[in-house]
């Protein structure tokens, strides 16, 4: 009877079976991977959370905005150099507020019209 063959590593050759070899490390064992996953999750969470609570602004033409101002249908305004956003007055108490946004032309007549 021939003796049983044994795989004994010699030189650069590895054994076929490695006992007590650690498995793949879990993500929570590597602090840098956990840190980067936390950053990615936080950015995504705040992006979706902000978009869900921000009121939807309906884009309207500047001429439509002028009509709302003449008819006194504008409740509040935020005016900047590049945009005008605001809330329209509601006709009923339980009605949902309508938000709008428009782009003004580059002139100073808007300030005079809003003061009137």
List the helices and strands and how they pair.
Blueprint: H1 31-53, E1 57-59, H2 62-70, E2 74-79, E3 84-88, E4 98-102, H3 109-115
Parallel strand pairs: 1-4
Antiparallel strand pairs: 2-3, 3-4
Task: Write a concise keyword list for the protein shown above.
rod-shaped; alpha+beta; 116 residues; 3 helices; Signal recognition particle alu RNA binding heterodimer, srp9/1
Can you characterise this structure?
The chain is an alpha+beta fold. It has a domain at 57-115: 2-Layer Sandwich (Signal recognition particle alu RNA binding heterodimer, srp9/1), CATH 3.30.720. Helices cover 34% and strands 16% of the residues. A four-stranded mixed beta sheet has the order 1-4-3-2, with helices on one face. Strand 2 and strand 3 (84-88) form a beta hairpin. The model has no long low-confidence stretch (mean pLDDT 77).
């Amino acid at each position: 009877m021939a003796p049983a063959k044994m795989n004994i590593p010699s030189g650069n050759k590895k054994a076929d079976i490695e006992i007590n070899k650690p498995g793949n490390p879990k993500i929570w064992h590597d602090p840098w991977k956990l840190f980067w996953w936390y950053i990615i999750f936080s950015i995504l969470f705040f992006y979706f959370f902000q978009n869900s609570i921000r009121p939807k602004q309906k884009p309207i033409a500047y001429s439509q905005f002028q009509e709302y101002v003449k008819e006194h249908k504008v409740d509040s305004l935020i005016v900047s150099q590049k945009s005008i956003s605001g809330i329209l007055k509601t006709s009923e108490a339980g009605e949902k507020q309508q938000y709008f946004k428009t782009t003004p032309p580059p002139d100073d007549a808007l300030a005079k019209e809003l003061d009137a």
